Amino acid sequence: MVILTSPTPPFFFKNLWKILMESIGTVELLFLDCDGFCFGAQRKDGNGGARQGGERGKQRQGKKRGLIPKRGMGYGASMASERCISCTTFNILAPIYKRLHEEDQSCRESHHRACWLSRNQRIIDRLLGDMSSIICLQEVWLGNDELVDMYERRLGDAGYITLKLARTNNRGDGLLTAVHRDYFRVLNYQDLLFNDFGDRVAQLLHVESVVPFNQSRNSSVQQQILIVNTHLLFPHDSSLCILRLQQVYKILQSIESYQKEYKLSSIPIILCGDWNGSKRGHVYKFLSSQGFVSSYDAAHHYTDSDADAHKWVSHRNHRGNICGVDFIWLLNPNKHRKPLRTSWNEAVFGIIKYLLRAASLTENNAFAFLKGDSPGDCITYSGFCQALCQLHLTSHPHGLSPQDIEELWIQADIDGNGVVDYEEFLLAIWNPKRSEQPENFEKMTEVGLKMGAERLLAFGFNVKNAVLFPPEVEKGTWPEDYSLSDHAPLTVVFSPVRMPCFRRIC
Q: Any idea where the EF-hand domain is (predicted)?
């Protein structure tokens, strides 16, 4: 028996078989991860054939295909029948941004080839050790051909299809998404260019499972996924809150358009990336209102409460603050989704309330501020526009557009009489009642049928486990000896399930 520890380069296995076959005859390889947990085994005889027998043989075949999650993620042989997949998101910190000395901010890692080359080799070693089905990287130094070639070559040799997308205006870094050929085939791919103040971009992949998730290969249930990789703008100040929401809105709008064009209403969606905002932020609430679930929080049974808000971190930013900003969001097809524009308006109203409270305005004073010089006890449209300008939500190129303001007004003016009274102010802005996601199928049935939909069977995912590295960040602390990046890689294991959902009848 030969014991291998992770990470081990894939090309090493091919030569190892040949050498050991000639000298030993029958070889059994045991693959151990860095914690000593077995995550795979293979056995071959002297003729190069694989010996597989009974349930143990089936498990080995599953592990060879990457269909059984690592025991290091908390699973044993009893999971053999589940065809799980894994997904990793990681902001690898582009060398052009990595500061080597606090005293000299201009000294960057990109000026020292040995430094960035060694660090990125270690990053790839870790990625290949995990061998996730899907890898989403941010801040890849796409302006350096040597670094790009290294990622594409080593990931390609390990069986990955790689797709990259640079930020606009030659910012130097960008995104790289890798999908393992043993798990998925790429059906389609789109670049999403926001063309905004931050030159941010996103990747949209439409993939299909190579190995059927369901036991029956004749199943009519779609086994396809939409995957998004992105990196949102850093919130340097409160005026950028709207721009960050706009970036997410553009992503969800693109997904909706793609689903409509290809009639893909009943497939799961996975959003990966560095969202540059915590669980207390407006982006988190916006995505939650659309039915997306934070996979890490779901795996660890964390809620949206203040008590759970800081139990884990994934980033130490350039200001020295630590927070959780890296997410893998899951939207299953059985989730009821409110109209996208409604969620957007609610999120903007949330920003308005946040700014009003940050100015220490009480409920009554906030209403008076929005009313401005308007006569009577109601907020007028002109007074509303003036207040938004004073809150710095419209006074810059990436602020609210006239159309945005008009749609906000329509939603705030509940009775449509042209003014917003105190009660409407409370309902729309100060104490809004958000519609909750239905928790059971009976409620979903009622909602779905009212929306004019037909019932069908689809496939989605359960979150089996989620792990951040290094382990200290899962306890809300940042280890000083961690040097891979200023972000922690997040890996999530998903288990496919069949679920009832609805499709709108046009």
A: 400-435
